[in-house]
Design goal:
Blueprint: E1 2-3, E2 19-25, H1 28-40, E3 45-48, E4 54-56, E5 61-68, E6 73-78, E7 81-87, H2 92-101, E8 126-127, E9 130-131, H3 132-135, E10 136-143, E11 149-152, E12 172-180, H4 193-199, H5 209-222, E13 245-246, H6 251-262, E14 270-273, E15 276-279, H7 281-287, E16 301-303, E17 311-313, H8 319-337, E18 346-348
The structure holds flavin-adenine dinucleotide.
């Protein structure tokens, strides 16, 4: 255990003040024992996997940060076909790579996403038309209210668009995750137009999982969405805002406001979604006038120069700088189009200024 250590070392934004203590758990048993002991002692606990979806305040966390480092990957099969099971702290992309190397498909569209495997159900991680919930077989949880361990079916996790019952709730620890796989190295059906075009296949067709992984990684690197310590565009929490879903009662008004601003000859990206129509947060941010690299080259926190949806630390930013920028972007989109953007990462000891 170390004391009063800055949490910036544990987040991909490289932001966050000190925790009272930091404990790294190298296996599942120590994770269970540590969290149980801290809970009994009434000590606040902050679980951290890869720290890639966390915005931690400059004053830090008044409790113990538990770093999930349990690793291990096992392949198996049952009547429904092959699957892979991993300890929560296993690096997600190493898990995806291991499945592709072992000749299985399924997870390839989720290549290059930072963080730990066990955290992926927390916000139902998704990219390029696939969400982990599509492949999830089960999750082993520690119930912090009872101290019990149990395997839970995906249908009990409340998985939705970048959310689940686990997100922002301090009730459970993911210990182990298990994913169904496709045999014969076949990818999931390609549901994302840009990816299908790059692969030269029709939407809905499958391809070689290895090829899909390579193409996805290439697309992600181009957008600054694969971690690279040398590239400040990747000192981020990925997409900072979720794509807003506009209810049927408001969508005509919102489209009219967008058309007013951008003209009616511009195609507005819009997709049917649960509860209405999903718009693209990145597109709205750009059309509201926020350019890549906004506000300027001197600002310590800026929009990525590759993708307007990523808010980045250029090296000496504070969390205060970051949330001020986020509020600026949120307000600009609201003023332009009447659309409220909501942050995707989990905020700890900080919030967006109103
Ligand atoms: C460059 C970049 C690109 C990204 N691209 C994508 C993308 O394409 N799609 C996408 O969906 N996300 C993306 N993200 C966001 C992020 O990578 C994912 O949400 C990832 O699953 C977070 O994992 P983590 O281990 O880093 O979580 P952390 O940031 O460590 O934690 C996130 C939350 O989960 C909690 N938590 C951590 N471990 C556990 C556990 N074992 N049990 C219960 N709760 C836990 C934490 O307390 C916190 O509330 C991206 C982020 C970055 C920086």
């Amino acid at each position: 255990m170390t004391h009063a250590q800055s949490l910036s070392a544990y987040t991909t934004l490289r932001l966050g003040g000190p925790a009272r203590a930091v404990v790294e758990c190298a296996d599942t048993l120590s994770l269970v024992e540590t969290v149980t002991r801290l809970d009994h002692a009434g000590e606040p606990v902050l679980l951290i996997g890869g720290g890639s979806n966390l915005v931690i305040g400059d004053d830090g966390f008044g409790g113990t940060a538990v770093i999930v480092r349990s690793t291990g990957i096992e392949f198996g099969s049952d009547d429904d076909g092959p699957f892979v099971t991993a300890a929560a702290g296993t690096d997600w992309d190493e898990l995806v790579a291991a499945t592709v190397d072992a000749g299985f498909g399924g997870l390839e569209c989720l290549s290059g996403i930072p963080g730990a495997a066990g955290t992926t159900p927390v916000q139902n991680v998704g990219a390029y038309g696939v969400e982990v919930g599509d492949l999830l077989r089960g999750v082993e949880l520690l119930d912090r209210t009872t101290g019990g361990r149990e395997w839970v079916a995906p249908s009990d996790l409340g998985l939705g668009y970048r959310t689940s019952k686990l997100k922002g709730a301090d009730t459970h620890v993911v210990l182990t995750v298990s994913f169904r796989l496709n045999a014969d190295a076949v990818s999931e059906p390609i549901a994302y137009r840009e990816l299908a075009q790059r692969l030269g296949v029709d939407e809905g067709a499958t391809a070689s999982a290895r090829l899909v992984r390579e193409v996805v990684l290439g697309l992600r690197v181009g957008k600054g969405m694969v971690l690279d310590a040398e590239d400040h565009d990747t000192w981020s929490a990925g997409s900072f805002f979720t794509n807003p879903v506009i209810g049927d009662d408001r969508i005509d008004r919102v489209i009219a406001a967008i058309t007013d601003r951008v003209g009616d000859d511009v195609r507005i990206p819009r997709f049917p979604a649960d509860g209405g129509t999903k718009l693209s947060a990145g597109w709205l941010i750009e059309r509201a006038g926020f350019t890549r690299g906004y506000p300027d080259e001197q600002a310590p926190a800026r929009l990525s120069t590759k993708h307007t949806l990523a808010l980045t630390n250029r090296g000496d930013a504070t969390t205060d700088d970051l949330v001020t920028l986020a509020a600026d972007v949120r307000d600009g989109v609201r003023d332009a189009f009447g659309v409220e953007l909501h942050p995707e990462p989990v905020f700890v000891s900080c919030s967006l200024p109103r």
